[in-house]
Amino acid sequence: MPSLRRALAGIAMLGVLVGVIVAIGVLDSDHVDKRGLNAGLALVIGWSFLGAGLYAWWRRPDNRFGALMTAIAFAWFLSILAASNSSAGFTIGILGGALFLAVLVHMLLAYPSGRLESKGQVALVWVGYLLATLGQIPAALWGDNDYFECPNCPVPLTHVRDDGDLVRTFDVITMIGAAIAIGAVLVILLERWRRASPPQRRAMAPVLWSGFALLALFIGALASSAVGASGAGDLFGYAALIAFTAVPWAFLFGLLRSRFSRAGAVGELLTRIGAAPGTGGLRELLADALGDRSLRIAYWLDAQGRWIDPDGHAVELPPDDHPRRAWTSVEVEGRRVGAVVYDRSLVEEPELVASVAAAAALAVQHEQLTAELRARVEELHGSRQRLVEAGIAERRRLERNLHDGAQQRLVALSLTLRLAQSRLRKDPDGAERLMAGAQEELQLALEELRELARGIHPAVLSDRGLQGAIEALAGRVPIPVDLSDGPADRLPAPIEAAAYFVVAEALTNVARYAQATHARIDVTRDDGQVTVAIADDGVGGADPTKGSGLRGLADRVAALDGRLELESPPGEGTLLRAEIPV
Question: Which residue, 514, 513, 500, is CA-closest to 580?
């Protein structure tokens, strides 16, 4: 920024110097009437564009609008050189006499972003520059005193011969091209106004309408000149000059209005929030303060690292390069609590947005707590719904396994026992063989039933408690597993079951995917909360969205008002942690 300020200060001094030189040239001119008035008017117009342009450039260095407005000031001074008594100055003034209008058209088409929006606009700007430069060459080559209506004007350095009629022919062609180009610019500006949102219109209005008036008056001057109505042409010319002078002042007026609007909006917002605390409608208050009915508020859940809307649903904020939307973070004592999402045109008024966001920070924090509670309720509802669905699916699985496994074995066992009973007297040896087969079938059925029961509630958990059950799980893993001493007292059965299944799922994933050489399990109870943490030194990169195992665990833990967290950066191992209130 210091280098930018030095550069802008240098441009300002150069602009002042050029303006003084041009004004001296006007005061010393032999072919300008009312030299004092014209010199003063040249300085007022040039320095107005210079000051407004440099301020806009300093305020938004990444926006070309300020640079274009500054360029208009120098192009304007260039055209005033036509008042010079020297042939060189007069020639430069003639050749660059319309350049400021081309730069003005460029600025209006690029306003307010500083960039042209389409290839058509780029082409239109190029046409403007070509007309402004090439269109002046015939006058410099063949213009005479009758054409310039200036008997005391010096002869241009580029003068070839006197041929005013030829120059006027080229002027007609240039004026037709200029009228078509300006008409196209007016259509683009009207269409831009029609498509703009209310905040965009408020931001664009001063500059856009003053520029629109200038171009419309200029077309009137061209038309009057074409039909030979010199009186009307002079009237349109004076009006266009007034409109041209008004452009930089309209820009400054827009900024001043924005400052007053900012102060009033923030003051009114504070008053309205203070008069009706906690009654809701914060979005409407912010929308009124910024004049943007499309405004939305998002709330930040720091623990989960995501954004939610007022109803607790997850939302995504627009990216930085979004063409129509932008957002500003809302913080309380350095901690992010929310964001205001608004029309991108308000980026031109960053102080206003920041002031409104700061004024509403405490109210946003209050609503953030409400939205977080709704998100929590929504999570619990979703978790319980998934648990119910998982329970139904598990019941069907058990029914299927019982039907296809143990039930079939028990039916076969019943038939075998009946057959053995019928052979007890006639064939004792055959009955004995049938009884031996029945015993084997019964043993298999018992094993299948134990396996099913283990999936419902592990017997080891009931017999040996959580610590013993975890030791049994660790013994099945093919890598060393360190175990901390668990809580001294038994935990409630639902919490023990949840902790057991968290450890079981984690160790299963370690064995299958982690490529780890070591793991550690910690179960602690502190301040009314049980924490279960399983860490490994594997490859990391676990994705909780893939597969249903971790999601099922998260639902099981959430049903107990707890939460499940996964940290698994690639190449740095995995940490699965469950926190469950007791």
Answer: 500
Q: Please state the three-class secondary structure of 105-169 as a single string.
A: HHHHHHCCCCCCCCHHHHHHHHHHHHHHHHCCHHHHHHCCHHHHCCCCCCCCCCCCCCCHHHHHH
Q: Could you count the other beta carbons within 10 Å of the beta carbon of residue 124?
A: 19
Mean pLDDT: which of 261-265, 436-440, 502-506 is highest?
A: 502-506
Strands 314-315 and 325-332: unpaired
More confident residue, 364 or 529: 529
Amino acid of residue 482:
D
Backbone angles phi, psi at 531, to 5 degrees: -115, 125
Residue 333 DSSP label: T
Given this model, what pLDDT does residue 277 score?
47
* Both tokens assigned to 530: 């049980």
DSSP SS3 for 575: strand
| Residues 245-268: b if buried by 16+ CB within 10 A, e if exposed | bbbbebbbebbeebeebbeebbee
Q: What per-residue confidence (pLDDT) applies to 390?
A: 55
Residue 160 CB coordination number (10 Å)? 10
Q: Which residues, other chains included, contact 401 with Cβ-Cβ below 8 Å and sequence gap of 6+?
A: 448, 452
| Cα 398 versus chain centre, distance | 49
pLDDT digits (tens, 9 = 90+) for 150-176: 888 888 899 888 888 898 888 888 888
Q: The pTM is what?
A: 0.55
Query: If phi over 0 gives left and psi between -120 and 50 gives alpha, with beta otherwise, what is residue 243?
Result: alpha
> In this structure, what are the phi and psi dihedrals at residue 111, rounded to the nearest 5 degrees?
-75, 140
- What string of H, E and C letters represents the secondary structure of 287-302? HHHHCCCCCEEEEEEC
- Joined together, the tokens standing for residue 248 give 């930089």
SS3 of 197, please? coil
Report DSSP state, residue 486.
-
Distance CA 94, CA 76 (A): 12
Question: Minimal CA–CA distance to 481: which of 508, 447, 520?
Answer: 520
Buried b (16+ CB within 10 A) or exposed e, 326-350: bbbebbeeeeebbbbbbbbbbbbbe
Top pLDDT among 131 and 463 is at: 131
Write out the two tokens for 284: 């409407």
Output the CA torsion sign for 493, 497, 500, 506.
negative
Nearest partner of 125 among 138, 141, 114, 136, judged by Cα: 114
pLDDT tens digits, residue range 410-429?
Answer: 666 676 777 777 777 777 77
Cα–Cα distance between 507 and 543 in angstroms, integer?
A: 16
Show the DSSP H helices in 360-479 as ranges.
361-404, 406-422, 428-456, 459-475
Residues 6+ apart with CB under 8 A from 173: none
Separation CA 38–CA 245 (nearest Å): 13
pLDDT the model gives residue 168: 85
Residue 25 burial by CB count (10 A; 0-12/13-18/19+): exposed, middle or buried? buried
Half-sphere exposure of 105 (CA within 13 A, CB side): 29
